């Protein structure tokens, strides 16, 4: 390895190079006066050591073709990690940018505050404000100001988000958040809470022993106490998102292009679901919890019939996946104002189609390869903005690409999530 150096408005950034790809690890892009305060842009004009990963920092990691400069104008992919709004890092190896950089892409992996620091709301917060999501907006602003020096084109930025990161990407496209810093979104398995924060905050206060939830009180609580309280709070929302933005309101989104996807078997591997399905109680699980997880009154039996037809041994797993992920995918596909392409990913000969299994093939991480299957598609989409299969037309031609994780066996189906739309109640009333 040798040193790689870039000078940009943020400062002089010193990373590493293997002669093919330059990598700049864990670049600071924000600063906070205290953990629960809104962030500000990081200081500029400084020397930044980006030679070593610091996965616990809130930072950016950038990969570029070796020697890239401001004359290249490579497309930019900005990746926002998942982790249930409570974990994850900008150094996620599943989304490493090496494969993309070898194909002329500049990739930025974005870190942001998770857990209580990123997603607790306080009295006086503006509507729809979450510190973790605002951190991502600061990252996008940093990209606009600095990425040209790394060889990237700031006018051609594609956001890719998975799970909580997909939710964040869609939230950044809201008209009250969107600042023109990206052209398009790839949203993989977004997950929104079913309840508003106001409906959840009493559980969080209870987990702290009835403490009033304020910046001052949470700042005074020790990290150990905050962790214990969060675990108690999370346990009350095991089958939903304990944290995260609410509500999903596609009508509030700007007119940006969206590729929205899910994996077919999202939570077949979820431990409670696996247990219920293994002992033959998946249908009882669904009948007992279906209403609580969002199936409309009188629709549980109808949903069960469709679920049995698809995978009779994974009823509980399908319920969790449909309730937690796929219902939101269907709503975005039908109601986002911009162009939408919809995809459903199926197992390949290397991996089941379980939650998060689509990250490695999309980024060409081992055992997948650069330019292979989904990774080749992503690079082309970032360059051209065209998905390569029919657009999802909400009123008539609800075309969905069905493809396996390796990018093979592609077909186009019509409205494969219609059974979810018929069974699940709407949860889109503003709160």
UniProtKB/TrEMBL annotation:
Keywords: Hydrolase. It comes from Corynebacterium breve. Signal peptide: none annotated. Coiled coil: none annotated. Residues 58-190 form the Carboxylesterase type B domain. This is Carboxylic ester hydrolase. PROSITE patterns: CARBOXYLESTERASE_B_1 (PS00122). Belongs to the type-B carboxylesterase/lipase family.
